[in-house]
Amino acid sequence: MFAEEWPLMMFTLISQLAIGSFILLVLVRSLLAPKDALAARNLTNFGIGAVGPLMALALIFSLFHLGTPFGAYRSLLNLGSSWLSREILTAGGFLVLWFFTYKAYQKESSGNSLGWLTSFVGLLTILSMASIYSNSIRPAWSNAHTYIAFFGATFVLGCAGAIALIGHIAKGQTLSSEVMAVLKKVCYVGAVALIIPLIYLPVFFGNLNSGDPAAQASSMLLTGSYLIPLIIRWAFSLVGVIMLTNLISKQSKGVKTLPANSILLAVALILVGEFIGRYVFYASAVSIMVG
Amino acid sequence: MTEQIGFLFNADRCVGCKSCEMACKNENSTPLNVNWRRVSSLKSGKNISISCNHCESPECFRVCTRRAYVKRRDGIVMIDVNRCDGCMNCVSACPYNAPQFDIEKNKASKCTFCLPRREAGLMPACVSACHTGALSTINMEQYPNDTVATIEGFPNIRLTKPSIRFYPVKEKARYWIKN
């Protein structure tokens, strides 16, 4: 599985990281702008700039999934019914809009409406991405769980990405309490985005167990050979998000700096957790096919 | 749509000889790893021969990003191989494994209902090769009354509405073994 599908896995993970980081950086910027416009710009511009290359990297990965990569331009012909077509359009649209947002944000006085429009297109990309898997012949995917997992991953990865990118720029700086308060909110977004899929997990297993043979086979895979990876995935993600939230709230009371090493450790835990989670997502899908 | 041509399969008659598979391979010269028709065994011990079912609402058609699929007026679903760019979306969307991926050409291909033979007034190669008469073609608008839409072991038909009918599988008559 891994050998064939790794470009696809990397595409979904990296694009969700890019889109999530972008949305949360725009959120930080919007929340900070009325209080401290200069800090809002300085802290987020680098991060927003980094999102584009990340998204471009994801799109390049997705090309390797094609048997004939030079035929990729034909991928937009069936927007009427193919979610994959819609995903490619919205992912490309996000990248184009990112460029304009990035350019606009370079200017002194720029509003956030373009940033929110780009974020909206980013969310549509995630929606199309989840719909590809949700409208499939694999019961483990054709489930609300796919949407919850994909949107959850977007915001968890986005929280990790946004804080890592802000932390990189704010290295050694003492931040104001307003900035710390906003960063705390970002952590809460990440925590909620992690907890909702975790709460839904028993429902998901219940659905699979009461489903057709292919669904039950998926459930057996998840509670059998993929149980340990699944536990590691949730342990890593939970520890990562808790570490990050704890770190930010501690710092906002104390010295108000962002300790780079601890942040990187927490972010690495979150990334590895989501990576394992996505691997299990792909590996546990059993098709309803004959033979 | 003027008509919908389809297959009729009788699992009780099928002996699993794979003549249909071989005939398909001969007729269409498909590569080694591409099997437009495949025979597989069911849990009940019966065999089932499956190719593209030229579905009424084909998933391959819906998910293809390149509009490489067309549904003809006679109901046959065709793929334009020149449009395919090998994303394998259709391969993983079809419940019947009909689009087959050619790893040398990096493109998908599938059963054409033996279109050239059909134009010459012949049956598809698989149907004419079947020596037990387990496989035949029907017009889906006028299927025989004693047939059913699905049998046990066949994937859920609600998704794509496949153009295939089955004779109901008969309970095996046991004269000596009592359960």
TrEMBL record, chain A:
Keywords: Membrane, Transmembrane, Transmembrane helix. GO terms for biological process: anaerobic electron transport chain. Pfam families: DmsC. It comes from the Bacteria. One of its GO terms (molecular function) is dimethyl sulfoxide reductase activity. GO terms for cellular component: dimethyl sulfoxide reductase complex; plasma membrane. The chain crosses the membrane at residues 6-31, 43-64, 84-102, 114-134, 146-166, 186-206, 226-248, 260-281. InterPro entries: DmsC. This is Anaerobic dimethyl sulfoxide reductase subunit C (DMSO reductase anchor subunit). The lineage of its organism: Bacteria, Bacillati, Bacillota, Clostridia, Eubacteriales.
From TrEMBL, chain B:
Coiled coil: none annotated. Signal peptide: none annotated. InterPro entries: 4Fe4S_Fe-S-bd, 4Fe4S_Fe_S_CS, ET_IronSulfur_Cluster-Binding. Residues 5-35, 75-104 form the 4Fe-4S ferredoxin-type domain. GO terms for molecular function: 4 iron, 4 sulfur cluster binding; metal ion binding. PROSITE patterns: 4FE4S_FER_1, 4FE4S_FER_2. It comes from the Bacteria. Gene3D superfamilies: 3.30.70.20. Keywords: 4Fe-4S, Electron transport, Iron, Iron-sulfur, Metal-binding, Repeat, Transport. This is Fe-S-cluster-containing dehydrogenase component. It comes from Desulfosporosinus hippei DSM 8344.
